[in-house]
Design goal:
Layout: E1 5-11, E2 14-22, E3 62-65, E4 71-74, H1 76-80, E5 89-97, E6 106-114, H2 120-132, E7 134-142, E8 145-154, E9 157-163, H3 175-178, H4 185-197, H5 210-224, H6 247-263
Parallel strand pairs: 1-5
Antiparallel strand pairs: 1-2, 2-6, 3-4, 5-7, 6-9, 7-8, 8-9
């Protein structure tokens, strides 16, 4: 992995030098657009709608258009004047119980590696967070943007996860739920039985991205065939009930199927 940022965590009067790495990676297969007729690459030019000329990145500013149509153009100098945390510091704002942070707020994760001859301060902070079962709220500035973030420990390594601001999470207001009837005791009992029959420990490595695997297979086989397209067999799929009339009966069938799968 390559470090994307260097700085230090400001933990009271203690500084913890760290290197920052992206904790996740995208394995989706990338495509580019081509002309269907001859396979030529499709290219896009940055053309000004006023003068019709191609514009270089250095000459591009950013504009905001209000609801009433007013446009405001901002330059890089304008953005540099905006308040931001120290670019090479991750200040700890406070420590909160880990279970009080709603997972829906989590955005992107980054690993932190100690960046000093002695990682004692790093280990001290990690151990303190683990023993206290708390998460540190910090300010994290990356690519000229300051975000609120959660600093926690994963397998002995400090991880910082940027958080969405509360007003970035939409309110789920569905009238259909307000009018929905509560499930019966028998339905709840059968649903609980189904959950119990399908319950086990979480092992993420047991799940695979079948879509990407099959897509890569198509690409590899097409290349091996000299560019001639191949067709993979289409899965039959499971037959779905046209309409679940008896919820309890459907749950019972689900429990029976789960038991058969477990036995197999």
């Amino acid at each position: 992995m390559r470090s994307i940022w260097k700085g230090s965590i400001a933990f009271g009067l203690v500084n913890v030098p760290v290197k920052v790495y992206s904790a996740t990676e995208d394995h989706d297969i990338r495509f580019h657009q081509v002309h269907g007729k001859d396979g030529g690459r499709i290219k896009y030019n940055r053309v000004c709608s006023e003068c019709g000329q191609v514009v270089q990145y250095a000459d591009i500013d950013r504009a905001y258009i209000s609801d009433d149509g007013a446009q405001v153009v901002l330059t890089d100098e304008d953005f540099e004047k905006l308040p931001a945390a120290e670019k090479h510091e991750i200040p700890v704002l406070q420590f909160v119980p880990s279970d009080q942070i709603d997972p829906i707020l989590f955005e992107k994760s980054y690993f932190l590696e100690p960046d000093s001859a002695s990682p004692k301060a790093y280990q001290l902070l990690a151990s303190t967070l683990t023993d206290s079962e708390r998460t540190a709220l910090v300010h994290f500035t990356l690519r000229q943007r300051t975000r609120l973030a959660a600093l926690r420990v994963r397998d002995g390594v400090l991880v910082v996860q940027t958080l969405l601001w509360p007003d970035e999470v939409r309110a789920a207001e569905f009238g259909s739920l307000d009018e929905a009837s509560s499930p019966s005791e028998k339905e709840l009992a059968m649903a609980t039985m189904l959950v119990d029959s399908m319950s086990e420990d979480f092992h993420p490595e047991s799940y695979t991205d079948d879509y990407q695997i099959q897509l890569q297979k198509i690409l590899d086989e097409t290349i091996a065939n000299g560019g001639e397209k191949v067709s993979l067999p289409v899965g039959a799929g499971q037959e779905a009930d046209a309409e679940v009339v008896d919820l309890v009966a459907a749950l019972q069938r689900s429990v029976d199927e789960a038991k058969k799968s477990a036995a197999g």
